[in-house]
Amino acid sequence: MISVDEVMTSNVFTLKPTDSVYDARVLMQEKDIRHIPIVDDSHRLVGLVSQRDILSASESTLHTSSSEQRISLEKQHKIEEVMTRQVKIIDQRDSLRSAAVNLRKFKHGCLPVVTDGELKGIITDTDFVGVALHLLEQVEASVPAEEFN
């Protein structure tokens, strides 16, 4: 069995509920990520904010006349106002298959990995694309080239 901890990203960028929508947008842009787990001071998961959440929050400020005004409004709004609180999670000891089934079943782009109440990492649909590519490379390497023509 391949476990979640063999594929998950363990160096996770997190924010606090009191951080701003602007902070989340900047972090997503700088780190090229689409999901940010939201944690309390004890590093316990309290929510999740997605790129879609940030875009929705930003859309409500688009009617403003300048980008400075939009940024100012984004800085006023806290992540806790837009984050998802009921987050599906997975344990790092669970199977990779279980993670894939849950991602597909709940149509989430990620699952925070929580073990013994503490955030340990995150597994995303992008991680599964990497697994699929690795498996395809193995299959292609084991099949003679003339079978691909």
What does the model show?
This protein is an alpha+beta fold and 149 residues long. The chain has one domain: CBS-domain. It is 40% helix and 16% strand. The strands form 2 sheets. A two-stranded antiparallel ribbon has the order 1-2. It has a two-stranded antiparallel ribbon with strand order 3-4. It is globular, with a radius of gyration of 19 Å. It starts with 20 loop residues before the first helix and ends in a 7-residue tail after the last helix.
Q: Pairing-aware structural class of the strands and helices?
A: alpha+beta
- Helical segment tally? 5
Q: Point out poorly predicted stretches.
A: none
- Tell me, briefly, the overall form: globular
The count of DSSP E runs of length 2 or more, i.e. the number of strands, is 4
CATH architectural category: Roll
How many discrete domains?
1
Helix content: 25-40%
* Strands in their spatial order, largest beta sheet: 1-2
- The CATH superfamily appears as CBS-domain
Strand proportion: 15-25%
- Describe the biggest sheet? 2 strands, antiparallel
**Mean pLDDT over the full residue set:** 88
CATH fold label: CBS-domain
Look at the structure and give the CATH class: Alpha Beta
